From TrEMBL:
GO terms for cellular component: cytosol. This is 3'-5' exonuclease. CDD domains: DEDDh. GO terms for molecular function: 3'-5' exonuclease activity; nucleic acid binding. Residues 9-193 form the Exonuclease domain. Pfam families: RNase_T. Keywords: Exonuclease, Hydrolase, Nuclease. The lineage of its organism: Bacteria, Bacillati, Actinomycetota, Actinomycetes, Micrococcales. It comes from the Bacteria. The keyword Hydrolase applies. Gene3D superfamilies: Ribonuclease H-like superfamily/Ribonuclease H.
Length: 240
């Protein structure tokens, strides 16, 4: 039987943030869902974080988390980011793959949050960002399996296409993490010749696929928009 990235279990990860600027925006909620090799949920950890800044109305409209709510109910930023780092570092140490959708965004935001909160010199940070993390990214996988795709490739659209339940819970960190995990499992079953490999091999392959995908996207966007300054950064799983 072929080895699979989920043969020893896996952890699904998602964050909700104050926006989509990786270097500036803040994490306000996060979820880690721990799965067995048979895809049974065995443990869940969630965080609600007070970022210390106003949550823009546009972000609240997406994830439902207001400034007042995170200020009253959330933990301090430094404490929350440290706990997320520690949990992901444990995954890295035990070579437990972390599954996400567009996970390079979450990992890049976490990188800058760690730096902002003085955690970039910690052992946990080093264990994650020095090559220890094995990231399984459903978006990169889908782009590889389906070079041409009619319709959008966001999580909601792909969940609908693959019959993954998400519904009104979209943009909730726990619901999105669960959906990302289920989508990646279904993509593996759909295209085993690409994805039915061990986590380390799939992680390395995704880095190469992503660079090509961003080069192709950059070429398309520059041509379609007539703007040669458009840049799609090829770094994966984190943009520093």
């Amino acid at each position: 039987m072929a080895r699979t990235w989920f043969e020893n279990g896996y952890v699904a990860f998602d964050t909700e943030t104050t926006g989509v600027q990786e270097k500036e925006d803040r994490i306000i909620s996060a979820s880690l869902l721990y799965y067995s090799p048979t895809h049974a949920l065995v443990k869940r950890r969630t965080w609600l974080i007070n970022p210390g800044i106003e949550v823009p109305a546009a972000a609240t409209a997406v994830n439902g988390l207001s400034t007042e709510y995170v200020r009253d109910m959330g933990m301090p930023t430094g404490e929350g980011i440290a706990q997320i780092l520690a949990a992901l570092a444990q995954c890295a140490r035990y070579r437990m793959p972390v599954v996400a959708f567009n996970g390079s965004f979450d990992m890049t935001v976490l990188l800058h949050e760690s730096r902002r909160n003085g955690l970039a010199l910690s052992t946990d940070f080093a264990d994650i960002y020095s090559g220890g993390l094995r990231l399984i990214d459903g978006l990169t996988m889908h782009r590889k399996a389906h070079l041409k795709w009619k319709g959008r490739r966001n999580l909601g659209a792909l969940c609908e296409a693959y019959n993954v339940e998400l519904g009104e819970a979209a943009h909730n960190a726990t619901a999105d993490a669960r959906a990302a995990a289920e989508l990646s499992v279904k993509l593996t079953a759909e295209t085993p010749e690409l994805f039915e490999v061990d986590a380390s091999s799939l992680h390395v392959a995704q880095r190469q696929w992503y660079a090509v995908q961003m080069e192709d996207l950059q070429t398309y966007l520059r041509a379609s928009r007539g703007d040669e300054t458009i840049t799609c950064h090829p770094e994966w799983p984190v943009r520093r």
